Amino acid sequence: MSERRLFIDRGIGETRGVVTLDGRPERLLIRRDEDEPRLALGARLVARVASVEPAIATAFLDLGGGLEAILPFKPDERPVRGGAVEVEIRGEPREGKLAIARLAGVGEGAPRLLAAAPDLGDLLRRLVREPDLAEGRDARTVCDDAEAEALETIHPLPGGGSLAIEPTRALTAIDVDLGERKGADAKRVTRQANLLALAESARLLRLKGLGGLIVLDLVGRGHDGTALLAAARLAFGPDNPGVSIGPVGRFGTMELSIPRRTRPVLEQLRRPDGALGDRALAQRLIRRLEAEATAQPGARLTAACAPAIAVAAEPLARLLAARIGARFAISADAARQREQFDVGT
Length: 345
Description:
There is one protein chain. With 345 residues, this protein is α+β, with helices and mostly antiparallel strands. It folds into four domains: 4-36 and 119-145, Ubiquitin-like (UB roll) (Roll), CATH 3.10.20; 42-115, CATH 2.40.50.140; 152-266, Aminopeptidase (3-Layer(aba) Sandwich); 270-344, Ribonuclease E, catalytic domain (Hypothetical Protein Ychn, Chain: A, 3-Layer(aba) Sandwich). The chain has helices spanning 120-128, 137-151, 186-208, 225-235, 265-269, 278-295, 307-324, and strands at residues 4-10, 14-21, 24-32, 44-53, 58-64, 67-72, 84-91, 99-106, 112-115, 154-156, 162-167, 172-177, 212-217, 244-245, 253-258, 301-305, 328-332, 342-344.
């Protein structure tokens, strides 16, 4: 029987939450202090209907302060342009896409936040219905490991082979590779690899926060479509409601549609060019400083990093000083690479 555990790391400037499945990270959620609360998953708001597009059964909402969201509607629930509605955020915004709202009822007054989204601990508990929540040093390690795995593109399959997961603007492509996976019966080996790839794909897509259209390129030919479809339904069951799974096609691919709920982890941590963002690197620097301060009470610490990372770390450093005291200094070194920094006494 599968075991899921919850971990939360309440860091400087951000909180990270992880769900593990049998000891491996399955979900990673990141909330930063400056995130817009009106766009967080589960937030309830009064919004104004800015426009209605019957052809695509979608209304565009004004959330106030220049924020927008889209509201899919059923034919008998078509909103009125200019009217006030009460909504709940069901899908956080992502690059180039607006947040998705669900109609909760008729609204009154100007656009505003009615109820903040659940905090990360409550959201984790809602996802897996597990009351225990681990914190502290172990939780930080688990969150660091989850973050590292979420950033990878190629993931090993137990027993050999690999998965390559690559999101594009239109869809997420997953390629299954047998690699050095061994076995006397080639058909049995490919069948086992494909079944395992479905389970791993489901876990990794949840970990990365990816949804929408998924195309999975299976290995081999002459697939057992019935077995693969049953395995896919089991693997992606935790993503319901809203999962749609197609049969294996003539070219050996399986298509799935998974609801988008949280912002993809890669968008939070990486720049558009694929490199880690300044803020993500600054968070790593601050975590290193905090760890050294805990290990060396009273010591005066110094950190050296690239100038852009030093700038990004400034507001986090003020928060860290309030927690451990002003016993550290961060210096900018133009000769350093962005991902290279040193922390010491």
